Amino acid sequence: AAAVVASVRFVCDRKSVKHPVICSESGRAIVSHHSVLIFEAVSAGQQHETPSDVQFLLEGYSEEARGDYENLYGAAMRGDRESCLLYVDKLKQRCVEGFKEGSLSIEQLAGVDGLCESVIKAIGASDPVLTYHVNLSVFTSIPDFWGIDQLFPIVPIHKLDQRPLARGILSDLTCDSDGKINKFIGGESSLPLHELNNNGCKGGGYYLGMFLGGAYEEALGGLHNLFGGPSVVRVLQSDGPHGFAVTRAVMGQSSADVLRAMQHEPELMFQTLKHRAEAQRNTNKAGGDKGNDKLVAASCLARSFNNMPYLSMETSTNALTAAVNNFGVYYREEAVAAG
User: Fold this and answer.
1) Model confidence at 161: pLDDT above 80
2) N or C terminus: fewer CB in 10 A for the chain?
3) What whole-number distance in Å separates Cα of residue 39 and Cα of residue 45?
4) CA angle 239–252–333, rounded 5-degree value
5) Helix spans in the chain (H)
6) What gap in Å lies between CA 300 and CA 129, rounded to an integer?
7) Which pTM was predicted?
8) How do residues 217-271 score in pLDDT, each as one tens digit?
9) What does the record give under GO molecular function (predicted)?
10) What DSSP designation does 52 have?
11) 278-304 b/e with 16+ CB inside 10 Å = b?
12) Is the pLDDT at 213 greater than 60, yes or no?
């Protein structure tokens, strides 16, 4: 800001122009720092799978595409990297044309992508990039990324004493093909991240934080994807042993809240589904404890309506519940005990 004002003053003095009143729109710069979005990566995987049935892929190929495949196979066997890249591009283009014409199925097209990706990785032409599936909706929580290509700092918020050995992009849990983050600060197309096992990060969940999103993201998100807003906690500095305290905790919208906001009647829906489940059990089960089965079915349905639409994580849910039950004030050790 000082440099901008100094430049304006220099030009005005040079041209003998009266100094103007300078007004700037600095809302994002002022308030964006107050909020951090924390979300969990629940799994990670390769973007493509290598097809196992090459003969299935060849069905429906044009003669030109078959020729490209044979040339690609020969170049790969020779270790000719440049020719491999050339035939990969040709094969992909011909197969896309075949899919548009209806001669190739979408499964075959996906198989070709996987095959070409495997060849590229085998010859060392690209680094493997994993897709990390994160428990959020990009449209709900980070709408400016999709709408105006606004980039936000995104980093892991734990495992910081370990070097990240993987590269990854982020994909949300919705059905939107645009629900992914593949552009990052510094012009990067992937993030350095830690590897996940089948149960998340080794030693527990794997959490990331998105910073500088406190200006507009919360207001713009709305109910897109029917996820609702995330849970909110207010954190203040404290003289306690950990240096902070959570002074307020508010659970996010439940599935029933989201349905109600979309002009549905969750209470009526619950009763209807409950009666249908009970009727189905009465029809299919001649003996046994029907009363207990009805209670179990009703309990499962009630949880579905009362839980948040996000993928439920037991540890984080218990920690937030502890805060709510404790009048919104707790310290870190209570969260650990709750988990």
Assistant:
1) yes
2) N
3) 18
4) 30
5) 2-14, 27-31, 54-58, 63-78, 81-101, 106-122, 138-141, 143-148, 217-221, 255-261, 266-284, 290-306, 314-325, 332-338
6) 38
7) 0.61
8) 777 766 776 777 788 888 888 887 878 888 888 887 788 888 888 888 888 888 8
9) arginine decarboxylase activity
10) S
11) eeeeeeeeeeeeeeeeeeebbeebeee
12) yes
Evaluate whether 33 touches 97 at the Cβ level (below 8 Å). no
The residue whose two tokens read 């075959």 is: 108
Q: At 119, list the tokens.
A: 């060849």
Residues near 257 by Cβ (< 8 Å), separated by ≥ 6?
A: 228
Q: What is the pLDDT of residues 5-28, one digit of tens each?
A: 999 999 999 999 999 998 877 777
pLDDT tens string 130-146: 888 888 888 888 888 88
Residues noted as catalytic: 175
Q: Under 8 Å CB-to-CB from 337, ≥6 apart: which residues?
A: 322
CA distance 140 to 258: 13
User: Which has the closest alpha carbon to 118: 158, 155, 84, 161?
Assistant: 84
Q: Which two tokens stand for residue 237?
A: 């500095």
DSSP E strand boundaries for 98-243: 130-134, 154-156, 166-171, 180-181, 191-193, 196-197, 200-201, 206-210, 232-237
Write out the two tokens for 272.
């209807």
Token pair of 47 as six digits: 């973007």
Q: Which two tokens stand for residue 91?
A: 């094969």
Of 192, 198, 197, give the one whose Cα is nearest residue 156: 192
CB 137, CB 179: distance < 8 Å: yes
Q: 298 to each of 107, 130, 273, how far by Cα in Å? A: 40, 40, 9
